[in-house]
Amino acid sequence: MKEKFTPYLAEILPPILASASLKPEMGIEGKGAGDMADIIQEMKPEEGKKKTNIMTDEIEEKDSAIQMLVVFIDELGAGFAQYIEQVSAIFLGLTQYYASDNIRNSAAGALASLIKCAKSSGGNVNELHIMAKLYSNNIISAMDSETETECLIA
C-alpha cells in the first residue's frame, strides 16, 4: 500500500508510540517496584563484561512497537516525515537501553532510515546535516558504553 497507507498513520501511531515509550518497571524483593533503568544500572556488569538481557511482557511490547515503527519508516519513506521528530526522540533515548540488545540494535539501525526518510521528503540540507550530526554523536556515545559486539556492529 505504501503511500496509500499514510492517511491511517494518525490513527495507528499514537498507541504504537506509547508502547515504544513505555518505561517498564520491575521490583527486587525488599526494594519494591521502580524504574527498570535504575535497577539495571545497579546490576550493571563490570567494565567489558557481558550485559544482562531482561525480557518482560512490557519489554516485548516495547520491542514489537519499535519493530513496527522501523517497518513504517522503511516502507512509507516521505509519508512518515511528519513523525520523524517524535520518533527520533524515542529512538535516541533507546540506543543505550540496558535491558535489551534487540531494542538497542533496532533503535540504532533505524536512525539511518529516519535520515533517508527526511531526505526523501525534501528536507533542507542544513537540517539533514544537523540531524545526521545529532544521530552520529548519540551512536558514538552509546558505543562508549556498549559491551556487545553485535550491538556495536549495528
Describe this entry's structure for a reader.
With 154 residues, this protein is mainly alpha-helical. The protein contains seven helices and two strands; from the N terminus they run αββαααααα. It has a two-stranded antiparallel ribbon.
Describe the secondary-structure layout.
Layout: H1 9-20, E1 25-28, E2 32-35, H2 36-42, H3 57-76, H4 84-94, H5 101-120, H6 125-145, H7 149-153
Antiparallel strand pairs: 1-2
How would you describe this structure in keywords?
mainly alpha; globular; 62% helix; 154 residues; single chain; two-stranded antiparallel sheet; 7 helices
Helix/strand order: HEEHHHHHH
DSSP strand tally:
2
- Low-pLDDT regions: none
Q: Report the sheet with the most strands, covering strand number, pairing sense and barrel closure.
A: 2 strands, antiparallel
Structural class: mainly alpha
Percent range of helical residues: 55-70%
**What count of helical segments does DSSP give?**
7
How many whole angstroms does the radius of gyration measure? 17 Å
Q: Strands of the largest sheet, in order across it?
A: 1-2
Residues in β-strands, percent:
5-15%
Shape: globular
Mean pLDDT: 83
Distance between the termini: 29 Å
Count of spatially separate domains = 1
Entry summary:
This protein is mainly alpha-helical.
